[in-house]
Amino acid sequence: MNNSEILFLYDAKLTNPNGDIDDENRPRMDYERSINLVSDVRLKRYLRDYFINKELEVYAGQVDGKTVNATKRLENLFEKYDEKINLTKLPEPAKQWMLDQLIDVRLFGATMPIKSEGSKGGSLTYTGPVQFNWGHSLNKVSLVESSSITSHFSSSDANERGSIGKDYRLYYSLIAFHGLISAKRAEHTRLADQDVQLLDEAIVRSIPLQATRSKVGQYPRLYLRVEYNNPEFISGDLRDYLRLEEQEGLRSVAETKVNIDLLVDKLVQVSDQIEKIHIWHDPALELEHKEETKPLTELLPPTLQEKVNSLEGAKV
Predict the structure, then answer these.
(1) GO biological process: any one (predicted)?
(2) Which terminus of the chain has fewer CB atoms gathered within 10 Å of its CB, N or C?
(3) Do 189 and 109 contact (CB within 8 A), yes or no?
(4) pLDDT tens digits for 139-151?
């Protein structure tokens, strides 16, 4: 396996991309820059739910529809293991079997506190080879001014009328995530190349499929995974090389154009380090390079095009 860097863009129209429970569930914001934020935990939840829908085992999931602690989750998992084991003294073959079952631990890692009656318990820690920084909007965003909603049901038996609540949303946000895949850490969690291919698929497909009432209106627009041939090379945050033609007042993807001149220059600069460029691009998002607007694969110079692996088969 090789190191990779990920650039992922999706947009959110009239939704709340990531509510802040410390701020009445308003969208997470950097108010000084007027950009909204989305935690890596939110993104990983979309991916985990996608894996669950494909009937894959995940560690950070429920047991029989109920939320349980880490010990109960592992006890449930090891019911499928051939031998009876002590969770606080897992032998190496049992640890490897566990990792082979849990796709989210192989990708993102986990800390597993284990309780034990009659002893001090224990813990297992795996640092994930796949890590994302917090996402942020590339454009300046604004909150929908009308936020009050009504409910048919009253908040208490004493009230004869329905209750009134708040529903905070953004008009439009083009959100960008940066991520890394560490080949060295992949050895520790037994991450395989086919797992990374599944990650490619999940990132492109999961968000619209996992929509809830506050998340309807979110769609992937661009996914780029740059795979390197040098195990000690990382290029840096690829979001720094994107420029929006208009940063304020956007309401839809039809009004959005991203200039990628700097991104293409950067990829050309490090092309000797690149093994492959895995690309998925929704043509609804206009990308501009040297005043031309085309699909991303056609905007790249021939030296980069020959390294492209199109992920068009992962259409949502």
Answers:
(1) maintenance of CRISPR repeat elements
(2) C
(3) yes
(4) 999 998 766 666 6
